[in-house]
Amino acid sequence: MKILTLNFLTCARKLCKSSNTAFPLHPKEADLEIVETEINVLFLKNIMGRLMWEELKGVVGELGLPDLPPTPPEPETLVETKLQAPEGDNTGLNIEKAEVPSQIAKDLHRVLLETCVKEGKLVCGNCGHEYAVREGIANFLLPGHLV
Q1: What pLDDT digit, counting tens, does each position of 32-73 carry?
Q2: Which end of the chain has fewer CB atoms surrounding its CB within 10 Å, N or C?
Q3: What PANTHER family does the entry give (predicted)?
């Protein structure tokens, strides 16, 4: 389960639906794994406005990952423009502009999309219910007495 997913999950109990403390779910005894993927700056730009930044920073801190910036980065800071010669052009006369991911984009990509909870638990801050995570998949099925 990618860290990004934790920014969109809340407790499944009806009792917790109206409580602010049911979001985000807090990782406990989490075994993390890095799954490298190609960076997609356009996706990062589009997701920035949907992130609950303070809650995300809290989850990242609980997992012991590197700190996120105090405020969400602006989408335009996720790319840098560099000058480069096209492949096969050894003369350097046909310089082109290329957009490459900035270090901020690389760091966000690493935390949000490459860092995964492989095993562990997700705990509701309101009721304390624990959702098991096994092989990267969280089980949100509630026992009958909690439905």
Answers
A1: 999 999 999 999 999 999 999 999 999 999 999 988 889 999
A2: C
A3: MULTIFUNCTIONAL METHYLTRANSFERASE SUBUNIT TRM112-LIKE PROTEIN, UPF0315 PROTEIN-RELATED
